[in-house]
Please model this.
Amino acid sequence: MSMSLLTPAQKNKLPYASATQGAHGRLGLNFRRMVDGGTQVDVTTQMPPLRMIRAFRTPDDAALIHLHNISGGVLGGDALEVEIDVGAGARAQVTTTGATRVYRHRPGRRDAVQRTHFRVAEGGLLEYLPDPLIPFAGSRYRQETSFHLAQGSTLFAWDVISPGREAHGEVFAYARLALQTHIETHHGPILLEEAELEPARQGLGTPPRLGRYRTMATLYVCQPGAKAETWHALEAELATLAAALTCPRETLWGASPLVADGFIVRGLARQGRHLVAGLPRFWQAAKRTLCQADALPPRKIY
Amino acid sequence: MMTEFPWGILDLGVDAMNPNPDKLLRLLHLCDSALPIGATAHSFGLETLVYDEELGVHELEAHFTAVLQESGVLEATYLRHAYRLGGRVTNAAGRSAQNELATWHHLNRRLAARKPAREIRDADHTLGRRLYHLARSLDEDTMWGADWDLESGGELHLSTVFGLTGGLWALDEEATTLGFLQQSLAGMIAGCQRLMALGQVRAQQTAWRLKPCIADVVEQSRCWANGEDDPPAFLALLELGGMRHPGLPVRLFVS
Model:
């Protein structure tokens, strides 16, 4: 999969051949369905600071792995690339060892960047459940996440973007945060999100951007080829849950069908913990509808 | 004497002393806020923000500045791509239309994927289709070259149709982009007058003060359209308003 998902312009931006300061980490993983119904994980590439220690077999025979940045966070100049293939019939649950902390940018270095590419084959299931992103004061970071989904595959993926180290009084103190999420099926793109947040330049607190809210969470639910009646059922369920979990002027939730083959659930909150607690509920509702199975969270506090 | 703007000469075929009436009138016709395409039925998430008390009259200028800076740049960039496609069709006397069909489909599909809220996306498709068919009904002489609605798979967008029409009619690209943004802003402000206590004078003053912002957006969109990448757009609360709109207990707008 790897480079074929990148446009020429993106490839030209890759700092591999430059003498840029910062870590250039890579991690490549293949999830393969085994004869006994379980999923095996093969490590195809592993360059520090990115690592995967081992996979854990979940009660529903998926393979749970933790993406690990052994340096503890992302520093200016870091270029990190993760490529994950989920084979036919394989089931993958991918999370992180903790929040992604993006440290203050060092002058003279490139902006930090992390690119994560997923490909899910027919019958494959991917649950991508990273911990929140915490951009520290003065940080400059670009996050690119892409999913290429075959017909009959299933995706549950979320992300949580916090305003900074709130407990330290850092709220929207980062310099620049660029967020890109692309989801493609054989029909073409079904979601393209491109955002650039520069708090000092933009008014993130203006109504159309974040208003009074600080933390943003998103859940993507996709299953190319699912029947229309399945989506109708899921739409009703997600709408009901969103209304139930919404607390005006504190936490807002909404859900919408994508261009095709999926849904987006989005939440904005003044306090991030309400979003972190809410996401698993939407995930559970969606997985029961699409997969007739329970969502089994990795061993974390939500 | 040609009209001069910071980005160069604005050529509507307009000479200030001897204007080309046809092109100017065509553009003015497209930009008319009373154009019967149903724009007044859609708030594009605004109604939810007002209902949730997230937006008040005193915040409107900052709100629309952000909307222009974010989705304005995005829509204007896609308008330019469509305009240039229309121009290529016109310059080849319609012969290149078949060559542009895949580009047209790709353009509209990508813009649809940039709009995660279904109501907002569907509203845009509705307005795009209506504008397209209205324009075709008004001008049967233009060599349209193809059924652009059919070729988009029903995923027309107001901005891409506006741009395509401007290109096919050989209007000035900058003027077409300016006109679209002015029309869009006027529509949003008119929507606010139905949703909140916004009087006529204040509404006009708000629109007037946003003209430099529109000009800046036009400038940015030209840079993006000349490049390879898509412009970013961050309007999380407004998009969430579009997602939540179907659940409002009382709705003045369809979306």
Remarks:
- The CA atoms of residues 148 and 184 of chain A lie 5 Å apart.
- DSSP finds three helices and 18 strands in chain A.
- The two ends of chain A are 32 Å apart (CA to CA).
